[in-house]
Automatic annotation (TrEMBL):
Membrane topology listed for this record: Multi-pass membrane protein
GO molecular function: transmembrane transporter activity
GO cellular component, one term: plasma membrane
The protein's name in its UniProt record: MFS transporter
Organism: Cytobacillus solani
Transmembrane residue ranges: 42-62, 69-93, 99-120, 127-147, 159-178, 199-221, 236-256, 268-288, 350-372
Length: 380
């Protein structure tokens, strides 16, 4: 499992990077003299290129040894983070975030595929859990740690920590990861073919609107707290969100096995996620309880993907990898659009609290599609 741990370390860096920039927005804004809405695009551009890199580059990876592809993608990711820390202008910072997104998007699906091939069949579940769990742990532990380092020094110190983690992962994979072929991520045309199945289209759009709400809100958590909270400690709220995400990602597998009705489970998750967002402004100034909506929000956001994947696999059993990969791409695409729309809302000076209302509206769209799916299909 030592080899799998190296992949998990790489996924840790990806989870860390994907969510830390939102917490660093005030510092980046001050460095480049940009407003919060502009700096928020550093989040959206990373997630956008994360979403599109695997399908766009998959044909170029066909037949390539997995060690080389993983090494190159992690190296690109790490160098891009170095450029982020050194960026003399905001434009170069945005370019570096796009490059980091490409590296992350290539690494993630291949790391998951590789982890299953590095162990015996009876250990595949643990290997997959360890690899995927690396990303959620990167969010839970990495983001608060990164914010603490940023408070002690500056936001660039946090990015340099990411670079160090990336270098360790690259050196570890170079030394210990074997060189073997693997199936590249599904090509773009394979993913688009899935839209011909109406059930798949509805399911991925449910994911799309939920991700718009979740990351669009998360990206601008700092200005939201400044506007509506009497005393805002961003790190504590991100701890609550992150621990909720860890709890949700660990528990969802047991809940799927227990309920055996993933559609019903998704409905419950979406309703709970919507209620948690509604409760943010209502509970934000209550002692202790103010962290509860963030914990539930994190738990439901991270828990939603697994039952969605089960549903898609039941729709397309012969194209399972393509449908799951499509859902993953749409999830990150929704995240990018959510962060972009959030920036537009702030640039129009509509108030940060408006982001909560827009997140709820996006969740309503997601729920309407989910109820339509439940009505048209079975309730499993």
């Amino acid at each position: 499992m030592k080899k799998v741990l190296l992949l998990s370390l790489g996924m840790f860096a990806l989870g860390f990077d994907a969510y830390i920039i939102a917490g660093l927005i005030p510092g980046i804004s001050e460095t480049y003299h940009k407003d919060v809405s502009q700096v928020g695009q550093a989040v959206s551009i990373f997630t956008l290129f994360y979403a599109i890199s695997a399908p766009l580059f998959s044909s170029l990876l066909a037949g390539k040894p997995i060690q080389k592809v993983l090494l190159c993608s992690m190296l690109v990711f790490t160098i891009a983070n170095g450029i982020t820390a050194l960026a003399p202008t905001f434009s170069i910072l945005l370019l570096s975030r796009a490059i980091a997104g490409v590296g992350a998007g290539l690494f993630s699906p291949l790391a998951v595929a590789a982890s299953a091939q590095l162990v015996s069949s009876e250990k595949k579940g643990r290997a997959l859990g360890l690899t995927i769990g690396g990303m959620s742990i990167g969010t839970v532990l990495g983001v608060p740690l990164g914010l603490y380092i940023s408070d002690l020094f500056d936001w660039k110190s946090t990015i340099w920590l990411l670079v160090i983690i990336g270098v360790i992962a690259v050196l570890g994979m170079l030394r210990f990861l074997p060189n073997f072929p693997t199936t590249p991520p599904p090509a773009l045309n394979e993913r688009l073919k899935m839209f011909l199945d109406k059930r798949v289209t509805i399911t991925v759009f449910i994911t799309f609107f939920a991700s718009i709400a979740s990351l669009g809100l998360y990206t601008y958590l700092s200005p939201i707290l400044e506007e509506i909270a009497v005393s805002s400690n961003l790190t504590m709220y991100l701890w609550a969100w992150g621990f909720g995400g860890l709890f949700g990602s660990l528990m969802i597998g047991y809940l799927i096995d227990y309920f055996k009705k993933p559609k019903t489970l998704v409905t419950i998750i979406l309703i709970t996620l919507t209620l948690s967002i509604i409760c943010i402004p209502l509970m934000i100034n209550l002692p202790i309880l103010k962290y509860l909506p963030f914990f539930v929000w994190g738990a439901m956001g991270w828990a939603c993907q697994a039952p969605q994947q089960h549903i898609l696999l039941s729709y397309q059993p012969n194209n399972g990898s393509s449908t799951v990969a499509l859902n993953s791409s749409v999830n990150y695409l929704g995240s990018a659009i959510g962060a972009t729309l959030g920036g537009v809302v702030l640039s129009l000076e509509m108030g940060a609290i408006t982001l909560v209302y827009f997140a709820v509206l996006s969740m309503v769209f997601s729920l309407c599609l989910q109820f339509y799916s439940m009505k048209k299909g079975d309730r499993g």
